[in-house]
């Protein structure tokens, strides 16, 4: 992977293919390998830019607290440095908060829970999060193993920083209804982490958007159903 100095960190990214630029942002607590299955299916159509978000994969982080805006600023810095001034952005899970500059204010219990998990990671390591989240990503044993391995590669500091950033993200609900760009929502109908109803709510707010529900897929449709997911992404052309 290439690495660039951005906002006091080293941001790692890979680049594949040709065509209109498309940035793929992984979710928490994974890295760029999340997109390995769809990359070959997209690289003849898009110029793919696939970073590791700060702290994850091969990217470094900082000791001070940071926010979703900081994650987004990293991506702006990346695109500026590689001289890309217009790109489509796809985000998975937490990557969606970064990609769409969209976040809803957490209810107090969710915010408190994220800080509690961050404290547990600081004290006991990442094992508890890995055990809890693995079955929530997917029911497929092969992709559960993939998710576990991906999570086990990450540093505790990445978990802690991302959890606190998600807990403190601002309420941008009103931003959704004002979006003027093309929006494609891809959601597994068996997602155990984020119910399919959340995707349908976005569709209701943005009636001109595309909602692609992938039957039988969980929280990782790009892994579980790469061909269907890649086909949905083609709607961004």
What can you tell me about this protein's structure?
The chain is an alpha/beta fold. It has a single domain, classed as 3-Layer(aba) Sandwich (Rossmann fold), CATH 3.40.50.1820. 44% of the residues lie in helices and 17% in strands. Strands 1-2-4-3-5 form a 5-stranded mixed sheet. The protein has a two-stranded parallel sheet with strand order 6-7. α5 packs antiparallel against α6. The protein starts with a strand and ends with a helix. The model has no long low-confidence stretch (mean pLDDT 91).
Structurally, how many domains make up the residues? 1
Strand content: 15-25%
Low-pLDDT residue spans: none
Kindly report the spatial arrangement of strands forming the biggest sheet: 1-2-4-3-5
- Share of helix among residues? 40-55%
Please give the CATH class: Alpha Beta
User: Mean pLDDT, nearest integer?
Assistant: 91
C-alpha geometry: globular
Structural class: alpha/beta
Secondary structure tally: strands: 7
List keywords for this structure.
about 240 residues; 7 strands; 5-stranded mixed beta sheet; alpha/beta; single chain; 11 helices
Short description:
The chain is an alpha/beta fold and 237 residues long. Helix content is 44%, strand content 17%. A 5-stranded mixed beta sheet has the order 1-2-4-3-5. A two-stranded parallel ribbon has the order 6-7.
């Amino acid at each position: 992977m290439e690495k660039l100095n951005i906002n006091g960190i080293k941001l790692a990214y890979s680049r594949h293919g040709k065509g209109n630029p498309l940035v793929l942002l992984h979710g928490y607590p994974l890295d760029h390998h999340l997109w390995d299955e769809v990359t070959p299916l997209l690289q003849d159509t898009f110029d793919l830019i696939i970073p590791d978000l700060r702290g994850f994969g091969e990217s470094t982080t900082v000791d001070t607290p940071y926010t979703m805006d900081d994650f987004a600023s990293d991506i702006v810095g990346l695109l500026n440095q590689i001289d890309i001034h217009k790109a489509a952005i796809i985000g998975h899970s937490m990557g969606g908060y970064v990609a769409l500059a969209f976040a809803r204010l957490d209810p107090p219990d969710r915010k408190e829970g994220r800080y509690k998990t961050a404290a547990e990671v600081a004290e006991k390591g990442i094992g508890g999060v890995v055990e809890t989240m693995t079955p929530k990503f997917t029911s497929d044993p092969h992709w559960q193993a993939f998710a576990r391995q991906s999570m086990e590669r990450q540093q505790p500091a990445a978990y802690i920083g991302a959890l606190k950033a998600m807990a403190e993200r601002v309420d941008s609900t009103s931003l959704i209804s004002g979006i003027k760009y093309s929006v494609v929502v891809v959601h597994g109908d068996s997602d155990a982490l984020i119910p399919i109803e959340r995707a349908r709510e976005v569709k209701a707010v943005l009636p001109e958007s595309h909602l692609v529900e992938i039957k039988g897929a969980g929280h990782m449709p790009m892994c579980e159903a790469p061909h269907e997911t890649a086909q949905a992404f083609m709607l961004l052309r």
